[in-house]
Amino acid sequence: MTQILKQDGKTIIKTGSRIDTMNAVQFEKDIEPALADGGVDLEMDCEELAYMASSGLRVIQKTMRTVMQQKGKFKITNVNPEIYKVLQMTGFTKFMTVEKKK
After folding, report:
1. Of these four, 2, 27, 29, 81, which has the most CB atoms within 10 Å of its CB?
2. pTM
């Protein structure tokens, strides 16, 4: 389940355990209010994320573009090694900040 929190001037999106074909559209709808603020400092917390399909990658890329167009900041945090590997192989780590789970 997606959660949106406001903390220290930034918006944190907690992803839940999966972003796949079945829930990517709902995930995108869930995070739309966070993007409506404009110029937002957005962190996508993937601590619970265990699986992400290509539809999840699309949502992340679209979210990052929206935030950057609004002159905001975007980063992905608490990424497990398997998902980090996917983000690295697809080139996401070259154009956005991705932090591994500690």
Report:
1. 27
2. 0.90
